Prior knowledge:
Number of strands: 12
Radius of gyration: 32 Å
Helix content: 40-55%
Oligomer: single chain
Distance between the termini: 75 Å
Order of helices and strands: EHEHEHEHEEEEHEHEEHHHEHHHHHHHH
Number of helices: 17
Strand order of the largest sheet: 1-2-3
Shape: elongated
Strand content: 5-15%
Largest sheet: 3 strands, parallel
Structural class: mainly alpha
Amino acid sequence: MTVVTRFAPSPTGMLHIGGARTALFNMLYARHFGGRFVLRIEDTDRARSTEEAKTAIVEGLSWLGIAWDGDVNFQSTRQERHRQAAEDLLARGLAYRCYCTPEELDQMRQAARAAGQAPRYDGRWRDRDPADAPSGIAPTIRLKAPREGETVLSDMVQGEVRVANSEMDDLVLLRGDGSPTYMLSVVVDDHDMGVTHVLRGDDHLTNAFRQIHIFQALGYDLPVFGHVPLIHGADGAKLSKRHGALGVDEYRQMGYLPEALCNYLLRLGWSHGDDEVISLADAIAWFDGSGIGRSPARFDYTKLGHLNGLYIRQSDDARLVDLIRPGLEAALSRPLDDSDLRRLTAGMDGLKQRARTLVDLAQAAAIYCLHRPLPVDDQARPLLAADGRAHLRVLRQALAADGVLWQRDKLEALVRDLALSGGHKLGLFAQPLRAAVTGRTTSPPIFEVMEILGPDETLGRLDDALAPHT
């Protein structure tokens, strides 16, 4: 048997974190067993489906590196096939036409609520003679669901789950206008696409029992179901925007690397021992369906930021320059020139050591691209007061002397010797030096920054800091 999994989102909004994790789990499971992973856009709800959402889903998955096999499938193109399945059930006596009016259905719901029961259809047209059909009513087609016994689901995540058939009613397969319902369309598409395993959020668990009835009525083989607990916030509450229930594209804008976000999503609800940083190759090798927890995972920005920082430090410097370049150019309101790019590339190894996001990285990297005179932030400004300026004058003269080797270790030795000769600690000179050269109190090692900037730029920035207007 070839394993076939699918991700089947409705294009009614953004690709959110939970959906991305579902897609990731399905891709990994299929790849682990050498199978196929199908992307199916369930766009039958024309009123709510948008082209913008379809594009966001495809682009979000592509950015994350979640690759599907074959073309994107659109459920709306298969409605005639779905209708044929319902008509087949009707012809075989496994479905029937229901002529209930909206008012009758509303009365049923109200009566059920008054009796403390879940609202459901009472089956009044299940065995009724169609000759009794009222005129002017476009009938729905309902499944003749089993009424006795129970439906048993052997779920690969939840274990064995049972529901009494008496708790379920005869669901609608075709609406009065002839359009197929979600329940029918999903079953027919899963069968026709050869889906063998359905991994999805556990908010679909109740749907599974109804879908099993449709599978059985149509004579289709059941797929293996796996219902994964949803993602919660760090406080244990249902995930909302304040916890991180944002669109995947928003995480991209916030400066997360796709491989880091995938790694984090993989670890939300699945584990492999104590492994935290997991490559795609290892994820494919290890993801066999075991290790998925039964409790909701908790989304934690701090852990995501930590993991993203690890991936940034492991990333190629040239790639990071390319990734932060658009943000830097937007912030500077100008394109980066060759000198900027050379400095960024040379300084990237030092810059990336503290960054947790690409936004952090771009902000830190601006020290190599700013035009003089530099803006000085409020924390650095006190370091350029009278005492600091006095030390800077001494440093400026020493750094401009003939024979100074402009290398980070030589520069550090020169400044250290100056400090010690006056009975001072290195920081007394290094702190105003950092403020003058970067405009900040934090940066990569200051002597590394000076080496990369070069003597002309460094001395020019010192001159700016010592100028009377500062």
